[in-house]
Task: structure prediction
Amino acid sequence: MNRTDRLYALVEELRACAPRRRTARELAARYEVSVRTIERDIGALQQAGVPIYSDVGRSGGYTLDKSRTLPPLNFTPAEAVAVAITLGRAQGSPFSRSARTALHKIVAAMSAADGATARRLAGRIRFVEAPDEPAPGSVPAVLEEAMAARRVVRLTYVDGSGAETERDVEPVAFTAASLRWYLIGWCRLRGEGRMFRIDRVRRAVLLEEPAPERAFEDVADGPAALSIRALEFV
Result:
């Protein structure tokens, strides 16, 4: 069993036995690897957002919070790849990190056979990307947190002419056009609503100050010919 298959198997094993616990030694014996390998695997799953908890002591071990996981899903391999394609287009968006952890959870909830078929099919998909310089990896995550927590964010921003400025922005919304992502917010430097291309943000720092409530219509200032629609969540 390779590591990828073992990670999916570990999630299913812990889900099946929850709320009972499995020790690292028990899991190591089951998958014929070392205890240290199991500990590294569990650590990788936890970093990916899988809700695995550990207790120390005589009756300790690993357990998975069933209330925060999905039961085995009836996604076909093609459906799973379709979801992966959609999430893959989130690269460079404020939710790129969350998209990766979401995909991991979805595939982990599939059967081992369907998961393997989906991974083989996904290997035949290729994206063509522009050679533009991407935004630093931490920037989208900071912007996501700023929007979710409604807090002012300090940006180091490079405009179309190459001029670099530092400005405090009250986040209002995200938007996308032509595969580019933008932050819409109230720019305190300019005293008006502005759109910021996320790949032009060189640095983003979350401030402690809460952002005032502002209506999207009062901040957005795009061409009248454009039609802007809200994300349909269901």
Notes: The mean pLDDT is 83.
